[in-house]
Write a structure and sequence with these properties.
This protein is of the alpha/beta class. The chain is 53% helix and 13% strand.
Length: 213
């Protein structure tokens, strides 16, 4: 059974998420009212997934996510927020979040997202990813240089990297490059290995950091 820790400074929000998840057969093992408490509970309870709010007192969700990763805690972090501002998306993903959803997500999608992240997949709400992509295409980070890691990638792997950065799914990449789905998965696995990245979300972040999209 998938275990979940809910971190949000509003008790009603925590209870609402708890009810939704438990009705779907997931186990909520703890609740935290701020990022510091979320970090400590993640350390002791070792949940599969942490549902993490961004704006919380004492320590925000982005810093808590970063510290969970630095502490080597295996929990996957799924960030939930009412704010879809680009800096929140980008900072949460850079901090190590495996997913990013808005709080207005429906019940079915929330449960699916938690289960997907628990399986090791990564996800970003399409509307959020679109804002992220648009933001960095129009105004890419300053001081970009040709990254050395490109030398280790084949031409096809670089193509796949850019398409992942644009937010395309494996099926869409296969269609775009006219290759099989299995081949796409192989390229992505090689990308993660060569670049030392944990998951697909980190590929998206890297592509935008280096202006490859």
């Amino acid at each position: 059974m998938t275990t979940v820790l809910i971190a949000d400074d509003q008790a009603l929000v925590r209870e609402g998420f708890k009810l939704i998840l438990e009705l779907a057969g997931l186990e909520v093992v703890g609740q935290a009212a701020d990022g510091a408490e979320a970090l400590e509970l993640a350390r002791t309870l070792r949940p599969d997934v942490v549902l993490m709010d961004v704006r919380m007192p004492n320590m925000d969700g982005i810093e808590a996510t970063r510290r969970i990763g630095l502490a080597g805690i295996p929990a996957k972090v799924l960030v939930l927020t009412t704010f879809d501002l680009d800096e929140h998306v980008y900072e949460a993903l850079r901090a190590g979040a495996s997913g990013f959803l808005l709080k207005d997500v429906d019940r079915r999608r929330l449960v699916e997202a938690v289960e997907a992240v628990a399986r090791g997949e990564s996800l970003v709400a399409p509307s959020v990813l679109e804002r992220l992509v648009t933001h960095y295409v129009e105004r890419p980070p300053s001081g970009l240089t040709q990254p050395a890691f490109l030398e280790d990638l084949s031409a096809r792997e670089l193509e796949v990297l850019k398409l992942v950065g644009r937010g395309l799914s494996n099926g869409e990449i296969a269609e775009e490059l006219v290759i099989s789905l299995a081949t796409v998965k192989t390229h992505i696995r090689h990308l993660l290995q060569k670049l030392g990245l944990r998951d697909r979300v980190q590929v998206v972040v890297l592509a935008h950091e280096h202006g490859l999209v």
